[in-house]
Amino acid sequence: MAHLDLQEIEKLNSRYRANFINSITGYKSCNLLGTRSSEGNSNLAIFSSLLHIGSSPALIGFVLRPLTVRRDSFNNIKQTGQFTVNQVSSEFFKQAHQTAAKYKEEDSEFEAVGLTAQYLDDFKAPYVKESQLKIGCTYKNHYLLEENGCILVIGAVEHIYFPQAIQDPDGFLELNKINTVTAMGQDGYALPAFLGRLSYARPGSEPNFIEHGS
Amino acid sequence: MAHLDLQEIEKLNSRYRANFINSITGYKSCNLLGTRSSEGNSNLAIFSSLLHIGSSPALIGFVLRPLTVRRDSFNNIKQTGQFTVNQVSSEFFKQAHQTAAKYKEEDSEFEAVGLTAQYLDDFKAPYVKESQLKIGCTYKNHYLLEENGCILVIGAVEHIYFPQAIQDPDGFLELNKINTVTAMGQDGYALPAFLGRLSYARPGSEPNFIEHGS
């Protein structure tokens, strides 16, 4: 087994270290963040840091790096108070990846990569038409992470769109049925195969597979 | 397509809503958090909120809910300043799930679920011997998320252990080669199949698959 300690990690060159350290946390969520400026310019950015924060109230969070193109996204969110989250599927993960290219501020990533902006229920921020699970969020708060200048953005979930057929009777969504992908490192993608759901863990009994939330 | 707005989301009963809202962010990382109290009691807890925070310095973060058994983990981290992160593979995801059972404070989840505590390089917190990718971290900081009382814990990566054979020449780790699983919702698991890595996105060119970081 290879072992690197802090001294050895710090000696790695920055590109190698970025590939490596981005890999160690495991598989990540893979979503497109849709925003719109007050002038009406739409922006679309892939990100792998979306995090469940709470169910009641329904809150999500994501991390923005201090200096990236995604500051467009943050500026838009601060201007309009809204953003959308759109799950990436294996049918369009290449287009999703391409949103990371440094397009000019006035160019829309939607047109540039070949995805379709969709406006639903009077929400100002654009959804991705090709995405089968999409969330409309309002900005709640942000936290500056002093350790490296990143920003954790907290959003409240206000709209959820998804195909009813992927939902178990107890609310769980079988994301495998819409080919949602997962992100690896900075540039890797994988398509998960569902292993199953396990029963509520209790001392003294072993977890079993449960079916459809029964 | 089903659509729920905020009013409808708030009307859902709490168990259904927890299953549902925990599903919408997509696939999650799946790791075991190993800690030890100053009295020497070891603790092991599954968690799906591990997040990449930065590569330089190498930082990770995770979210603790306000009132869970995992407060044992947080108390231990505050006492010793150390914790380990251990990727869960398909070989032991049932044992990993079982760590969520409410064992007594003095009982070790390692023994209760049948995983092996391993102490490496004088680190006080226990690793999971069965895990093939493990990280030794020191506590750096935490942020109270005012929106729901959750805590974001920030840790510095000080040790990384992994099989050299899964690493591409440019640092990327092929997690599929060690059967790392990904978490879905509150109780689902999936095993990702690697689709590949895509080339650096640039305006005007389409992303292609790259091989082994070349």
UniProtKB/TrEMBL annotation, chains A, B:
Cofactor(s), names only, from the UniProt record: FMN
One Pfam family of this chain: Flavin_Reduct
Protein origin, superkingdom: Bacteria
Record has Transmembrane helix as a keyword: no
Single GO MF annotation: oxidoreductase activity, acting on the CH-NH group of donors, NAD or NADP as acceptor
Alphabetized InterPro entries for the sequence: Flavin_Rdtase-like_dom, Split_barrel_FMN-bd
Domain Flavin reductase like: 33-165
Keywords, alphabetical: Flavoprotein, FMN
Family label: Belongs to the flavoredoxin family.
Name the UniProt record assigns to this protein: Flavin oxidoreductase
Originating organism: Muriicola soli
